Task: inverse folding
C-alpha cells in the first residue's frame, strides 16, 4: 500500500477529532453516575451509534470478510442479522428490568435478584474475560497499524510495529475514557460509528466498480463462469453470477463452522449474552435518559446491523473474485513452514506427533500430498491413543482469506484520493471504540462490584471516579503489555477463536441464570450461585467427553444442563413468595411506541433477508 500525504493528513485529523470530541463532549464528570453512566442522559442516536461502534472491530472487517471470501459467503451474515432480532428482544424484555432497578453494572442485578455471592462470581468472570479481550483487540489494531505503516519511522525514533501500534491505540482510547467515562465513549463513537458505515460503503462501491472493469479471464470463482456473462457486464451482474453459490444462509448439518442447527439454538445463546448481558455493550443502555430513549437507540442499532453484511461480507466475496492469486501467494510462507514439519514427519514417522489438516483448496492443488497426509495422520492419531499424547495440529490452506480486507484497501481504493487514509482511520476507529468500551466496562465493574462492594463501601463519589480512572490506566497497561505477545504462533493460529471459546465457558451459565432470575420468581438465591458455577463445569465436561462437538454446540448443551438444574432446585425448594425487585430508578419508564413499531419492521426485514438468501 502506497499512502500519500492526503492519506496521512486524513488519518491524523481523524485521530485528533476522536480524542478531542470525546474529551470536550464529556467534561466535568464528578460523580459515579456521571462518569460511569453518562449521568443517565444518553439520547437514542448516541446510544445507537455507540452500540455499533463498540461492537464492530477488526474481528468483523478482517474475520467476516475473510470467511465470506472463503466458502461461507452470505452464511456468515447470520452473526449480524440474528443480532438484529436479538437487539429487538433486548430492548423490550431485558432493558426494562435493568433500568427499573437503577443498576450500574449487569452483575449488580444478580445481587438484587439472588445474592451478593452471585454478583461477585459474575464480576470476577467478566473482568478476567475483559483482560483477554482488551489484549486481543489491542493486538488486532496494532497489526493493522503495522501493516499500513510498515517500515515507517515516526519522530525519527519510533518504528511503526506491533508494540508501538499497541501503545498508540491504548493511549488514544484511554485518553478520553479516563477523562470523561461513558459519555466520552458515546461522543467518540458517534464519529467512529459513522466512519465505519461510510468506509464500508465506499469499499463496496469501488469494489463493484473494479469488478465491472476487470475482464472475466482475470476473475476467479469456485463455480464455472456462466457462458452468458461477458466482459461488458457491470459489477453487480458479475458479482451475482460469480457468487450465486455463496448466496445461501443455511448450510448443511455437517458443516464444521456454521451448520443450520446453530441457527436454531447455538447462535442465540452467545447473541443474548453479548447484546443483553455484556457490560461493555449494555452500559450504553444503562445510561439512557429514559426507557423510550434506550429502546429507540437499541432498535436503531438493530436496523444498522442489517446493513453490515452489505459493507463487510459482500466486499469479502468480491475480494476473492479479484485477488484470489494474491491470497494464494499470501498463504505460501505459512504453508512452507508446515511442509518442512511434514517432510520431517515422513523421514522419521515413528517420532511424528503432528497431524496435518489441509483445506479443500490446498487438497485440490496438491492431491498427491493430501493422500500421503491422510495415512500419516491416521498413524499419528493411533499412536497418540496408545501412548497417551494429544497430537498437535498444523493447517495447510490454499488461500489466506483473512487478507481479503487488506487487499480491498490497498488494491481497490484509488491511490492519492484520500480514501485509503479514511478507511484506515475508520478501521482504527473501530478498534479504538471497542477497546475504549471494554476499558470503561472493566473499570466500572471493578470499581462498583469489587472496590465499593468489598473494600470501601463508604467511598465518596469523587473517590469512586478517581478509582475508575486509575483502573482505566491499569487495564490499558495490561492490554498494551500483553498484546504483542499474542503474535506468538505457539498461542494459536487465531486469537479470536481462543477468545470466543474462552467466553463460551461462562456465557451459558450467565444466560441461564438471568433467564431464571427474570422469569422464575420463586427460584431461590442458591440457584444463581449454582448456575454460574455449573456453567463452565458443564462446558468443560462436554468438551472432555465429546471433543468433536463445536464450542457453540457445547455451549448449547451446557445452557440446557444449567437451566434444568436450576429449575429442579426451584421445584424442590421454591421461595415462599415470588421475588420482588426493588424499583430505585427515577428515569421515565414509559416505553416507546415508535420503537415497538420499528422493532417489528426490523424483525420482518430480517426474515425477508433470510428468505431472499435462503
Result:
Amino acid at each position: 500500500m502506497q499512502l500519500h500525504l492526503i492519506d496521512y493528513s486524513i488519518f491524523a485529523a481523524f485521530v485528533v477529532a476522536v480524542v478531542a470530541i470525546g474529551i470536550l463532549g464529556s467534561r466535568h464528570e464528578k460523580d459515579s453516575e456521571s462518569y460511569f453512566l453518562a449521568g443517565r442522559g444518553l439520547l437514542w442516536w448516541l446510544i445507537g451509534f455507540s452500540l455499533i461502534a463498540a461492537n464492530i472491530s477488526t474481528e468483523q472487517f478482517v474475520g467476516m470478510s475473510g470467511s465470506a471470501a472463503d466458502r461461507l459467503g452470505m452464511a456468515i451474515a447470520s452473526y449480524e442479522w440474528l443480532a438484529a432480532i436479538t437487539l429487538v428482544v433486548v430492548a423490550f424484555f431485558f432493558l426494562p428490568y435493568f433500568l427499573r432497578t437503577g443498576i450500574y453494572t449487569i452483575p449488580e442485578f444478580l445481587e438484587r435478584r439472588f445474592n451478593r455471592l452471585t454478583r461477585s462470581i459474575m464480576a470476577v468472570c467478566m473482568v478476567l474475560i475483559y483482560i483477554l479481550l482488551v489484549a486481543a483487540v489491542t493486538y488486532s489494531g496494532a497489526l493493522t497499524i503495522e501493516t499500513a505503516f510498515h517500515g515507517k519511522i515516526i519522530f525519527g525514533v519510533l518504528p511503526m510495529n506491533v508494540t508501538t501500534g499497541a501503545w498508540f491505540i491504548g493511549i488514544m482510547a484511554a485518553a478520553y475514557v479516563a477523562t470523561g467515562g461513558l459519555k466520552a465513549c458515546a461522543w467518540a463513537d458517534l464519529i467512529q460509528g459513522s466512519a465505519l458505515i461510510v468506509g464500508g460503503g465506499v469499499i463496496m462501491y469501488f469494489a463493484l466498480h473494479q469488478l465491472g472493469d476487470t475482464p472475466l479471464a482475470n476473475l476467479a470463482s469456485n463455480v464455472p463462469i456462466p457462458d452468458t456473462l461477458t466482459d461488458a457486464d457491470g459489477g453487480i451482474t458479475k458479482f451475482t453470477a460469480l457468487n450465486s453459490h455463496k448466496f445461501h444462509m443455511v448450510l448443511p448439518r455437517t458443516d464444521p463452522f456454521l451448520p443450520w442447527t446453530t441457527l436454531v439454538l447455538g447462535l442465540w445463546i452467545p447473541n443474548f449474552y453479548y447484546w443483553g448481558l455484556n457490560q461493555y455493550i449494555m452500559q450504553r443502555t444503562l445510561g439512557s435518559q429514559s426507557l423510550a430513549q434506550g429502546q429507540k437507540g437499541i432498535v436503531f442499532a438493530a436496523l444498522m446491523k442489517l446493513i453490515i453484511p452489505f459493507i463487510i461480507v459482500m466486499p469479502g466475496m468480491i475480494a476473492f473474485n479479484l485477488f484470489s492469486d494474491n491470497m494464494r501467494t499470501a498463504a505460501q510462507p505459512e504453508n512452507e513452514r508446515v511442509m518442512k514439519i511434514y517432510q520431517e514427519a515422513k523421514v522419521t514417522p515413528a517420532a511424528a506427533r503432528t497431524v496435518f489438516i489441509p483445506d479443500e483448496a490446498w487438497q485440490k492443488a496438491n492431491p498427491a500430498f493430501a493422500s500421503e497426509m491422510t495415512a500419516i495422520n491416521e498413524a499419528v492419531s493411533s499412536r497418540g491413543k496408545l501412548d497417551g499424547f494429544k497430537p498437535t495440529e498444523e493447517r495447510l490452506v490454499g488461500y489466506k482469506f483473512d487478507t481479503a480486507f487488506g487487499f480491498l484497501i490497498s488494491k481497490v481504493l484509488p491511490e492519492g484520493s484520500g480514501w485509503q487514509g479514511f478507511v484506515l482511520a475508520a478501521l482504527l476507529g473501530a478498534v479504538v471504540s471497542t477497546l475504549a468500551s471494554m476499558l470503561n466496562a472493566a473499570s466500572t465493574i471493578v470499581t462498583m462490584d469489587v472496590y465499593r462492594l468489598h473494600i470501601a463501601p463508604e467511598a465518596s463519589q469523587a473517590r469512586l471516579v478517581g478509582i475508575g480512572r486509575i483502573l482505566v490506566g491499569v487495564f490499558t497497561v495490561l492490554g498494551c503489555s500483553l498484546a504483542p505477545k499474542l503474535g506468538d504462533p505457539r498461542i494459536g493460529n487465531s486469537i479470536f477463536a481462543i477468545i470466543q471459546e474462552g467466553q463460551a465457558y461462562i456465557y451459558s451459565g450467565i444466560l441461564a441464570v438471568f433467564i431464571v432470575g427474570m422469569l422464575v420468581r420463586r427460584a431461590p438465591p442458591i440457584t444463581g450461585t449454582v448456575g454460574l458455577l455449573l456453567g463452565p463445569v458443564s462446558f468443560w465436561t462436554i468438551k472432555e467427553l465429546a471433543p468433536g462437538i463445536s464450542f457453540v454446540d457445547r455451549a448449547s448443551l451446557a445452557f440446557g444442563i444449567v437451566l434444568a438444574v436450576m429449575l429442579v432446585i426451584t421445584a424442590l425448594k421454591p421461595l415462599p413468595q415470588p421475588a420482588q425487585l426493588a424499583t430505585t430508578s427515577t428515569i421515565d419508564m414509559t416505553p416507546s411506541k415508535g420503537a415497538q413499531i420499528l422493532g417489528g419492521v426490523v424483525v420482518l426485514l430480517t426474515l425477508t433477508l433470510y428468505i431472499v438468501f435462503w
Summary: The longest strand covers residues 354-358. The CA atoms of residues 441 and 609 lie 33 Å apart. The beta strands are 153-154, 158-159, 354-358, 392-396.
